[in-house]
Give the backbone structure.
Amino acid sequence: MSKLFITGQKRLSGCVEVQGAKNSALPILAATVLTRGESVIYRCPDISDVEASQRMLRWLGLKASRSGEAVLVQSDGLCRHDIPDELMRQTRGSIVFLGAVLAAAGRARLSLPGGCEIGLRPIDLHLKALRRMGAVIKERHGWLDCRAPHGLKGAEIALPFPSVGATENIMLAACTACGTTVIGNAAREPEITDLAEYLNRCGACIEGAGESEIVIDGVKELHGCDHALIPDRIAAATLLCCAAATGSEITLRGVIHPHLGAVLPLLEDAGCQFSASGNELRVRCPERLRSMKMIRTMPYPGFPTDAQAPLLAAAATADGTTVFVENIFENRYRHTAELARMGADIKTEGKFAVVEGVRSLYGAAVEATDLRGGAALMVAALGAEGKTELSGVHYLERGYDHPELTLSALGAEILRT
Ligand code: EPZ
């Protein structure tokens, strides 16, 4: 298994392009199952979750291949409606194939995606919504067996929680359903809007994406289209945390500033200075961050749960105490134990993490426990005294496109075995 060897306390400098959004790529690749013809998805990050999605598309009979920074999908060959366990388990984003395959094939048989490192990841909201649209779903022996004997029909669906995945599954199931679907309390993440833009370009009729109410008028069929993914706001936030942990000044290219609306003010409170021009964002970070007081993760447009771990790593050497409240997932502080091996002073209790800033962390052998936890250890290692050996790099590769190359380009001393 690969490892990263990082020598800390190197100033970063220069400009890097932000990768395309992982959490747009996964639902949009699943959405190609609904279309006929060819789609070209530009700025598709070269990450293992995208590779896993391509394998699922090929399993279903579609053609999916990478051409540089784009993924090409030829959707005319859909010939299966089942996705086996070994494919489903490769990425958490796979559950979004449920709505697409059920709508396209009238049936879907997927193995239940189990929990993962950050929580139980239930799908009750997905299943309840699809049943309201006429799906007959049996759950047994770890399999979901779904049918739409009379086709899927539009429905009024009020989500008790603005679930990103449930919103996406409903959108995919509703695009070619008979009638109109209204999603109340829909997730408002930018990746939802990106998915809606792809689907509308394919001929769907979706209004209100990005707001709390999304209306989808079912259409007969969808064709392929070309689509460039939005930049990955979490990858951008992670790079800002790398700069913040090393007192650096860097420029990110291809950023959509409003997508970082809940992240930038926190880093400004900590002493970082931002300047934006066009799609570039420059950050100048202080030698040592001030504490950020209290950070609560919330559904968009609140502070994103996926940025909690990298920001917590940057807060570990801030001047003062920062309290984190993780409101979205029930087990998303596993990185704190590994950070403690680097000298961090963090106490966790349920959804709370109290981070007492220390003067400096020191390099150690640490192990990533999940995608964003791995990012946190990378942030900490960049600012730490001495060398860090980071294992579990496969977690990082799920969501970050060659992070060691990106950071080396900014002057970090980072080697990969
Ligand atoms: C998406 O996960 C993202 N994944 C996650 O990114 C992200 O953290 C999350 O949204 C929140 O923004 C992808 O887009 C592939 P949810 P998802 O449904 O759809 C509960 C990363 O690091 N819930 O909004 O699974 C659930 O347990 C990943 O890139 C139910 O109870 O998130 C969680 O507590 C991690 N029942 C909360 O809602 C359901 O049926 C948020 O889940 C569905 C969700």
Notes: The pocket of EPZ is lined by residues 22-23, 26, 92-93, 119, 121-126, 161, 163-166, 187, 305-306, 328-329, 371-372, 399 (CB under 6 Å). Residues 22-228 form a domain with the UDP-n-acetylglucosamine1-carboxyvinyl-transferase; Chain fold (CATH 3.65.10.10).
